[in-house]
Amino acid sequence: MSEREADDRDGPASGQIQVLEDHGVEFEPGAEPLAGVAVVQVPAKRPVSRRRLWAYGLVAIAALAGAMVWIKSEFPFMFMDASVYDVYWHAPAGWKPVEQRSPLTLFLYRHPERHVTISGFQYHVENEVNTSPDMDADGLANFYLETTRANQPDWTGKRLEDQQSGDLKFSVIERSRKGKVVYTAYAVRGNTTIGASLAGGDENERYARETLPFFRDFLKGMSLKPTKGRGEGHELPAVQKSALK
């Protein structure tokens, strides 16, 4: 066996191994590269800098935020409040309660001397998502005005100034025809819709119009609170000035 063949079988000399190790190539203790196998020099990986890690994190956060914005714009109902709420209101001072006439009726009060009424209603949807995100208070008010114009040609309707009750907003409309006027206020939170109406007809139309400020005070006493049930109504004692004249 020639001297060259012996060198090839035994692998690279120790000096060669040292050169490879100096360039980042690692060998297990006592191990040597096989003779006749080309050794590729692979530089050792440098650790990722902290600045680069922060940059990667910011890019990922920005991408996630952009995705969430898109999802919310395309599927808004997935992120809207779908809770059901209990309804609270204060009885109007001096007005007489009347037996409720509908399962949706919260209350009905009549002025003891005039044929003017204040009534309330509620509607709940039990669902894991908000099934009608467009039907907020403004949407309901506009819908009933459009319905009035389309189906009741002898009636006129218009939006009035909104009424705030804490963080709950009522959208208020007026509908009227000769000898009668009805004011209705709508509020929506989650899957609960509530409303109240002030109505007066014939010789009491003028009085109903004069009672609008009192009706707005009545709306200020209405509120919605979270419930674990199906949504109930709760009458509270009268605490406001009477509208009796």
List keywords for this structure.
three-stranded mixed β-sheet; 29% helix; eight-stranded antiparallel β-sheet; elongated; alpha+beta; 245 residues
What secondary-structure arrangement, pairings included, does this model have?
Layout: H1 3-10, H2 14-22, H3 50-74, E1 85-90, E2 96-97, E3 105-110, E4 116-124, H4 137-151, E5 156-159, E6 163-165, E7 168-177, E8 180-189, E9 192-201, H5 205-210, H6 212-220, E10 223-226, E11 233-236
Parallel strand pairs: 1-11
Antiparallel strand pairs: 1-10, 2-3, 3-4, 4-9, 5-7, 6-7, 7-8, 8-9
Low-pLDDT runs: 11-25
Choose one word for the global shape: elongated
Structural class: alpha+beta
Provide mean pLDDT, rounded: 76
Supply the number of helical segments: 6
Most strands sheet: 8 strands, antiparallel
